[in-house]
Amino acid sequence: RGGVLGIVGESGSGKSTLARVLLGLQRPDSGTVTLFGQALGAVGRIGLARQVQPVFQDPYSSLNPRRTIGDIIRLPLDVHAIGAPDTREAAMRAMMARCGLVAGLVSARPGQLSGGQRQRVAIATALIMRPSIVICDEPTSALDVSVQAQILALLAELRVEFGLTYVFISHDLAVVRAIADNVAVMCAGEMVEHGPVAQVFSAPNHPYTQRLLEVA
To answer: Which of 29, 77, 87, 100 has CB 3.0 to 4.6 Å from 82, enough for a Cys bridge?
Structure first.
């Protein structure tokens, strides 16, 4: 709880497949995923959605282009009937402000926003129901370097403020080094190494991890 697990590996290593399994979007061929000691099947789709939320790589494709920003962020509260309509509106506006989105954007649509603003909308939407765990699948890879730093700083602040746990998936080892406490290295669908970031990155045991660090 409250930590950041980085998951690294080359393209095709299974990182995004793992993310989909953790979100309940894809069933594993074998093994189980448990959430607070319960198998995902026992938790159920509604329970899982309230506890685990995603932030994907490309916010433009994950946001409905026909909805306003306010509607997008408020939608999870509407779908799950959390609070009265006026409290949902207030919660949406408060989360917008906390994620660095000015109030004037409430009626804007995704196509009118920059990439960094769209990713802030995705983060606000993920956090509006106050989940325990956020699955971040390459959340900064589509952004330029300066915006990446802003989004990483925001994620770090929100983790402390809301007591979040992150699973942070990335091919960028520098980003994982900056944000994660522990790291898991994936190769061909398997976890080949796992441990504290400083330990794994400074003294990797597995040849695959060593090669990743050499080309990073």
So the answer is: 77
Q: Report the DSSP beta bridge partners of residue 135.
A: 54, 167
- Distance (Å, whole) CA 172 – CA 160: 23
Residue 154: CB partners within 8 Å, gap ≥ 6? Answer: 99, 100, 120, 123
Please report, in angstroms and rounded to a whole number, the separation of the first and last CA atoms in the chain: 29
Beta strands in 32-105 (DSSP E): 34-35, 38-39, 52-55
Give residue 48's Cα distance to chain centre: 15
Backbone angles phi, psi at 179, to 5 degrees: -110, -25
Pairing of strands 182-187, 190-196: antiparallel
User: pTM of the entire structure?
Assistant: 0.92
Tens place of pLDDT per residue across the chain (216 aa): 899 999 999 989 999 899 999 999 998 888 889 999 999 888 988 999 999 999 988 777 778 899 999 999 999 999 999 999 999 999 999 999 999 999 999 999 999 999 999 999 999 999 999 999 999 999 888 788 889 999 999 999 999 999 999 999 998 999 999 999 999 999 999 999 999 999 999 999 999 999 999 986
Strand ranges inside 17-132, DSSP E = 34-35, 38-39, 52-55
Say how far apart CA 155 and CA 54 lie, in whole Å. 13
